[in-house]
Amino acid sequence: MAFRVRTITAREHTAFNATRPAVSFLQTPAWAAVKREWGSESLGWFDDLGRLVGAGLVLYRRLPGTKMSLAYLPEGPVIDWASDDLGGWLDPMVDHLKRSGAFAVRIGSTAVTRTWSAATIKAAIADPGITRLSDAPPDTVNDVAARTSSRLRRLGWRPPKDGQGGFAAGQPRWVFQVPLAGKDEDQLLKGMNQLWRRNIKKAARAGVVVTQGGVEDLPDFYRVYVETAARDQFIPRPFSYFPVMFEALLAEDKDRIRLYLAHHEGDLVASTLWIRVGAHAWYSYGASATAKREVRGSNAVQWRMVTDALAAGCTVYDLRGITDTVDANDPQLGLIQFKVGTGGEAVEYLGEWDLPLHRLLYKAFDVYMSRRG
């Protein structure tokens, strides 16, 4: 089938997303309002009968000194990634983006290629002969996604910075998720490891109270977030990013984003941001105070977000990115160990793919972005 791709309105895009069980929050029109430093456009795929059958949010980043841009669809577009005729979906999009002045296109599929259970991850960590989760036998393999990967390569698409895992390519290819479908709170709690269950109970006994806040509470969140950044040695976003994020996402859906705060005897000990689109909920940002870590506020606030996701009808609670390391000497190991305690699973996406349209400019842009850090 030949598809026609054209610009659609934010209202059309939002209405299409609402027909899907779940769509990445990075593929909502509201996300364009968060990423104000990028240009943006909503695209629609129309079939022979004029029906809207696919959609995507395109973010444009201009290469300085030129009139050309990288066209980026984070965790999108929302199309039939299992189609035997993937070119029929992607080629008209590429033609449209060429006309818009793109020197390269980056897409990102959330089609799942492989998964590893918590038990499999623990066994891999304990095995000195395995340093990468990708070297451990997965619990599930999606053959359809493997065929899609082959089709993308035949069409000329390549993973950015091929061979590097984790966060190198932009949006994470590896994520950690807790499946919620068909489970109740007791089952979810039993699925967590002993340390997580003990810490959740410890927080409750210590009197940790988790509440849902609003935009007016963002300064409190930010104070602890900056403290976390200094302790964990990452560069925090500026405060201005978070009110913009709240304003944009809440304008699209009044329950798109939530702020959670965990207090102990009046002291803020942990705070997190939760995002939901359809049946998928994400842990987006988290912060914890250095003081009173023994009351386990971080575990308490995570448990509240899990149970709230379940109550909202979600089928997935997503703790977002991990790397695929299981090497005891890798400092990133602590991240996967924390998340694996929830009893969920590591998920490998088909991930991000680039199609250079002007190879010299594509290389120049890569150098420019690496220098920006």
From TrEMBL:
Keyword set, alphabetical order: Acyltransferase, Cell shape, Cell wall biogenesis/degradation, Peptidoglycan synthesis, Transferase
Superkingdom, taxonomy of origin: Bacteria
Recorded GO MF terms: aminoacyltransferase activity
Stored InterPro entries: Acyl_CoA_acyltransferase, FEMABX, PG_Glycine_Bridge_Synth
Record has Repressor as a keyword: no
Pfam families per record: FemAB (PF02388)
GO biological process: cell wall organization; peptidoglycan biosynthetic process; regulation of cell shape
Family assignment from sequence similarity: Belongs to the FemABX family.
PANTHER family assigned to the protein according to its UniProt record, in alphabetical order: LIPID II:GLYCINE GLYCYLTRANSFERASE
Protein name: Peptidoglycan bridge formation protein FemAB
